[in-house]
Amino acid sequence: MTTQPHASGEPKEGLRKAGKRTTRTPARSGNGSGAERLSLIGVKVDKALRAEIDEYAKTHGITRSRAAGQFLEMAREALRAREGVSAGKAEEILEALEGVRTVVELVGPPTFGLLRLLSHWATQSGGLKVSEDELLAELRTVAGDEWEQALSEAERDLHLAPKKARTEGRA
Question: pLDDT digits over 157-166, tens only?
């Protein structure tokens, strides 16, 4: 293997005498910035992905190599972002959210209708010295407070459930 000096003064690996390439280690740039050179890798991709990379490169006015590098960087970010929640846990969360959505769709409209009817009937009987709008505002305030309390209790129970399951599993 022959070694050629690089502009930064560090040796640079060259070609073997047999004409085969050797792997190169990233060299530091000579400007003192500490930025490393990009490493060459070879990958095989299907035609559809290659066409997509080519289109991306053409659209952004960059080389195919640079476009492929950007694709890999985006994939790396996506994989790291996905590491936080396992697929099974994500499915469980989605199912729970769907259940909550269904309950809200069933309970929400009748609740608001009930509030409106109660305030209307209460003011029509003449026994209250407040207007329908004032009564409705008070009902909504009290209902909001009760809802917040119910959510807090449910959240507390949700956090206690795994701990309880673990302690029951050990017993």
Answer: 888 877 776 7
